[in-house]
Specification:
Layout lengths: L21 E2 L4 E2 L11 H6 L12 H4 L22 H5 L7 E2 L3 E3 L18 H5 L3 E3 L36 H4 L18 H20 L3 H24 L11 H39 L6 H26 L4 H26 L3 E3 L3 E5 H22 L4 H29 L15 H21 L1
Antiparallel strand pairs: 1-2, 3-4, 4-5, 6-7
Helix pairs in contact: 7-8, 7-9, 8-9, 9-10, 9-13, 10-11, 10-12, 10-13, 11-12, 12-13
C-alpha cells in the first residue's frame, strides 16, 4: 500500500544528508526518521528528537549550507531524508537545528514541547514544522504552558480559641492585613452610633434656638439651605458620570434663597411669593451670560432648585412668624423626628414588603405603618399639650407628616437614582449630606403649616 502523502512510490533513500539533527543527551548526531516510509504518524512522533535548548559547541554556526541545486537557504530544512527529493523540499518529521540560526519543532505543526493540540497526527502535520530562534545559552527553556504551577506553601494559621470568628476578609478581620476593621453598620445600612449622635446634636441646636432667641432659627434654616444648594448643585454636575450634567448658577440661587427666607419671616406668604418669583427670574437672567448652549437644561435645574429647597423650607419660617411660632415649629420637628424613628424601627424589626423597590429598596410598608402610628401618637400629644388643640387634629397632623415625609424621601431617592449618586454629600456622619436630612422636612413643612392654619 502506498503510504506517501502526495501519492506514488517513495523515492529510494540515498543515505544521510549533509547535516543530521543533534541529540544533546546522546552527544552525537542521529538519523532522523523517514516521514515517507512505512512508519505511521504515531511512530514518527515517538522518534522525534527534542529541540536543543541551546547551541552546544557551535553546531548551528558550523552547519553546512543548502544542498547544491536544492531549495533556497530560507527554505532549507533538516531532519528529513537528505537523499529524498521530497525531504530536500520540506522539513523533516524530527526537530533539529537550522543552519541559519534556528531550532525546528517536532515536525507536527507544533512548537517544541507544546504537544499535539489537534488530535490524531495527519499528513499535513508531517509536512510542516515550527521555527523558533536558538535559545540563548544559560537561559532556562520556557515551561510547558499546559502545566499547572505548583502551589506555594501557605503559612500556618495561629491557633485560635473556641468561639473565635476566623475570616480571610481583611475588612472583617482587621489586624490580619494591618488595616483597621471597617465600622459596623446596622441592618438599615447606617453607622447607627454616629447617626444618633449627629441627630441629637442638630435637634438640640434647634430646640435651644427656639426656646431662647427664635430668630436664630431663621439663621439655622438659611445655613442649612445654602449647604443643601451646594450639595444639590454638585450632584447635578457629577450626575451620570458628568455626561449631560446641569450647571446650576449658585450665586443668584444663594442670594435669592436668603431673600426668600427673610421675606417669609418678615412679610409672610406675600413676601415669600414675591421673593420666589424674583429669585427664579434672576436665575434665568444670570444663566444668559454663559451662552445659549444647554440654557434650557440649566435654567430648568436652577428653577427646580429654587422651589425644592428655599421655597419649601420657607414654610418652617412662616410657622415661626406666628405668635406661638416657636411651639408650632417644635410640633413640626417632633412629628418629623417621630416619623423617621418609627419608620426606621418598624422597618428593621418587621420590614418584609417593599414599598418602592425600584426607587428606595430599604423602604417597607411595615416601616410606613410604624411611622404613621408613631406620628399619630406624637401629634396628638404635642398638639394638645403645647397648642391647646384637639387630639384627633394632632393624630391627623401626624398621619399627614408620615405620608409627606415618606414622599419627600422617595422624591430625593428618585433624584439620586436619576443622577446615579448614592448620597448628596458626606458632611453628616451616619446620615450622608445635609440634603439627606432635609428631604422629609422640606416635604412636610407646607402640610404642617397648612393644617395648623386650619386647626388653630
Amino acid at each position: 500500500m502506498n503510504n506517501s502523502t502526495w501519492g506514488g512510490a517513495p523515492e529510494p533513500d540515498s543515505g544521510p544528508g549533509p547535516f543530521q539533527p543533534y541529540d544533546p543527551w546522546a552527544g552525537q548526531a542521529v538519523q532522523a526518521p523517514d516521514p515517507y516510509g512505512t512508519q505511521d504518524a504515531d511512530a514518527l512522533r515517538t522518534q522525534v528528537i527534542p529541540a536543543m535548548p541551546a547551541d552546544p559547541a557551535g553546531m548551528a554556526a558550523s552547519a553546512p549550507g543548502p544542498v547544491p541545486g536544492g531549495p533556497p537557504a530560507d527554505d532549507w530544512a533538516v531532519g528529513g531524508d537528505a537523499g529524498s527529493t521530497r525531504a530536500q523540499q520540506h522539513p523533516g518529521a524530527a526537530g533539529g537545528v537550522d543552519p541559519h540560526g534556528g531550532v525546528y519543532g517536532d515536525g507536527f505543526g507544533e512548537a517544541p514541547g507544546t504537544g499535539d493540540t489537534g488530535g490524531a497526527d495527519t499528513a499535513d502535520d508531517v509536512q510542516h514544522t515550527a521555527y523558533l530562534p536558538v535559545a540563548d545559552p544559560g537561559v532556562r527553556p520556557p515551561a510547558d504552558p499546559g502545566a499547572v504551577p505548583p502551589t506555594p506553601p501557605q503559612p500556618a494559621r495561629p491557633p485560635v480559641s473556641a468561639g473565635t470568628l476566623v475570616t480571610d476578609r481583611p475588612e472583617h478581620s482587621g489586624g490580619e492585613s494591618g488595616r483597621p476593621a471597617q465600622p459596623k453598620k446596622s441592618r438599615a445600612g447606617r453607622n447607627l452610633p454616629a447617626a444618633i449622635g449627629v441627630g441629637v446634636g442638630l435637634g438640640a441646636a434647634i430646640v435651644v434656638s427656639l426656646l431662647t432667641v427664635p430668630v436664630i432659627f431663621v439663621g439655622i434654616v438659611i445655613l442649612a439651605v445654602l449647604i443643601g444648594l451646594w450639595e444639590l448643585s454638585g450632584a447635578l454636575k457629577r450626575g451620570h458620570g458628568g455626561a449631560g450634567a446641569a450647571n446650576v448658577p449658585l450665586v443668584p440661587l444663594g442670594v435669592g434663597s436668603i431673600a426668600m427666607l427673610i421675606a417669609a419671616y418678615a412679610r409672610g406668604p406675600e413676601g415669600l411669593g414675591i421673593a420666589t418669583a424674583l429669585t427664579a427670574l434672576a436665575v434665568m437672567i444670570w444663566r444668559m451670560t454663559e451662552g445659549p448652549e444647554d440654557y434650557l437644561r440649566d435654567t430648568a435645574a436652577g428653577v427646580f432648585s429654587v422651589f425644592y429647597l428655599p421655597f419649601l423650607a420657607s414654610f418652617a419660617v412662616l410657622m415661626l412668624a406666628d405668635d406661638d411660632g416657636a411651639k408650632r415649629v417644635l410640633v413640626f420637628f417632633l412629628a418629623v423626628v417621630c416619623s423617621d424613628t418609627g419608620a426606621y424601627a418598624a422597618g428593621v424589626l418587621f420590614g418584609k414588603h417593599k414599598m418602592a423597590p425600584t426607587i428606595s429598596p430599604g423602604k417597607t410598608w411595615e416601616g410606613f405603618a410604624g411611622a404613621v402610628a408613631t406620628c399619630a401618637v406624637a401629634g396628638a400629644l404635642s398638639l394638645t399639650l403645647m397648642l391647646d388643640g384637639q387630639w384627633w387634629q394632632g393624630a391627623l397632623l401626624g398621619a399627614a407628616v408620615a405620608a409627606t415625609a415618606a414622599l419627600g424621601d422617595l422624591v430625593e431617592s428618585m433624584i439620586k437614582r436619576d443622577l446615579g449618586v448614592k448620597d448628596m454629600g458626606d458632611l453628616l456622619p451616619g446620615h450622608g449630606g445635609v440634603m439627606d436630612r432635609l428631604d422629609s422636612l422640606l416635604a412636610s413643612a407646607p402640610a404642617v403649616w397648612l393644617l395648623l392654619e386650619i386647626f388653630l
